[in-house]
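STRUCTURE:
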């Protein structure tokens, strides 16, 4: 081959100077976005995002449990496939929601606005945290087409509850997510070792961190201070310094004695949809269905609260068997691949929800990064559906027992139950 001919085969690409563009072009899965986020964030902020409680057994188990289920494809025609579904009576492009995450502007100056924009573009629901750093009214005004859900805590203060519900309704939030797994703060020992604060206190290590990660520091210092505009403005917790003690203060002023009575009162007071988030006990799922809640989000808070806790995947089948088709079931904690979504739906879930995964995208590339994370899940889910041989979400649910094998009990194939997957 002549040199001239060889040169025609060589493609020389101009270097991409923008870090965001490099990440968007070269990160192909959630783990690669996680690694990018680690390079951007100060160590203490990354550990706050990435870590779990105590020995992080729950955190690790959340991922390991998905490896216990192997896929068993079947041969046949596949059309599409179509990943659209209905969640709480509304169309969603994917069986996926973005779960509430507090203090999102710690990770990117655009915070919840960037996440809401990506969810709106992708046509999936977004749950805004009660401890969000952007007001619910701002989210509503910026993204009127977004399917807006709001995370609310239980309280025995009837007037405070009435005021919060009126505010949610006025801002067009149609679904409440009631978190019930934060009666106390989990022992997140990474944060304690790091002396976690946001903004980080200036020490020799944080000064060195500034030199290694200047972009986060510059963006943080240029942006407004952290505040929590969806809290009661009279609350002393509406502070600009985020620390473990601040979370303890907020939780210490929540009503840890509240229970099913308060949930039933909320059901009577709120005419929209209600999702109970944070239980992994099938008996609680059944009780939620009996009192008229619309969905349950099986969750162990991503391993951030109670260590050595069951994974939602451990109790998903039993939970579905308890309630039949009377209530929707969502799964979070450890969702990192489109195949994870497929496995959860095959076992009886209606959708999955992600938190850390979209925050990795936010840190790495802002709103386009969140959008890319959603796109990755969509692409992976479609590809996995095609390869296992299903064309739609309804077919996936109906044939779930044919698709999975529990390799912890080799030789046993899931039996499809009438109450399990045909819903």
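SEQUENCE:
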């Amino acid at each position: 081959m002549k040199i001239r001919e060889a040169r025609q085969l060589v493609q020389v690409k101009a270097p991409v100077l923008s870090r965001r563009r490099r990440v968007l072009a070269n990160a192909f899965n959630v783990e690669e976005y996680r690694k990018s986020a680690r390079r951007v964030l100060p160590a203490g902020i990354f550990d706050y995002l990435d870590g779990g409680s105590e020995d992080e057994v729950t955190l690790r188990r959340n991922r390991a449990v998905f490896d216990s289920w192997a896929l068993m494809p079947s041969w046949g025609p596949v059309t599409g496939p179509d990943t659209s579904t209905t969640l709480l009576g509304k169309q969603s492009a994917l069986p996926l929601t973005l779960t509430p995450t507090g203090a999102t502007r710690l990770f990117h100056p655009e915070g919840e606005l960037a996440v809401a924009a990506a969810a709106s573009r992708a046509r999936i629901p977004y749950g805004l945290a009660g401890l969000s750093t952007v007001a619910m009214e701002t989210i509503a005004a910026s993204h009127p087409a977004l399917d807006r859900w709001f995370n609310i805590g239980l309280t025995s203060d009837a007037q405070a509850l009435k005021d919060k519900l009126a505010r949610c309704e006025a801002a067009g939030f149609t679904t409440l997510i009631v978190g019930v797994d934060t009666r106390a703060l989990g022992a997140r020992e990474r944060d304690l070792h790091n002396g976690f604060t946001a903004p980080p206190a200036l020490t020799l290590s944080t000064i060195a961190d500034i030199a290694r990660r200047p972009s986060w520091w510059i963006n943080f210092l240029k942006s407004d201070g952290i505040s929590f505009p969806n809290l009661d403005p009279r609350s002393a917790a509406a502070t600009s310094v985020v620390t473990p003690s601040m979370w303890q203060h907020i939780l210490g002023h929540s009503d840890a004695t509240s229970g099913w009575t308060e949930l039933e009162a909320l059901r009577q007071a709120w005419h929209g949809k209600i999702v109970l988030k944070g239980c992994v006990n099938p008996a609680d799922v059944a009780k939620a269905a009996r009192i008229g809640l619309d969905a349950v989000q099986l969750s162990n808070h991503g391993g951030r609260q109670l260590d050595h806790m069951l994974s939602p995947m451990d109790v998903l089948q039993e939970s579905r068997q308890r309630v039949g088709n009377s209530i929707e079931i969502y799964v979070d904690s450890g969702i990192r691949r489109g195949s994870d979504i497929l496995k959860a739906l095959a076992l009886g879930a209606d959708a999955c929800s992600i938190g850390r995964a979209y925050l990795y995208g936010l840190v790495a590339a802002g709103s386009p990064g969140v959008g890319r994370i959603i796109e990755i899940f969509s692409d992976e889910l479609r590809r996995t559906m095609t390869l296992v041989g299903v064309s739609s979400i309804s077919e996936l649910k109906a044939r779930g027992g044919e698709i999975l094998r529990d390799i912890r009990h080799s030789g046993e194939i899931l039996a499809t139950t009438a109450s399990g997957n045909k819903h």
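REMARK: The chain has one domain: 19-189+245-409.
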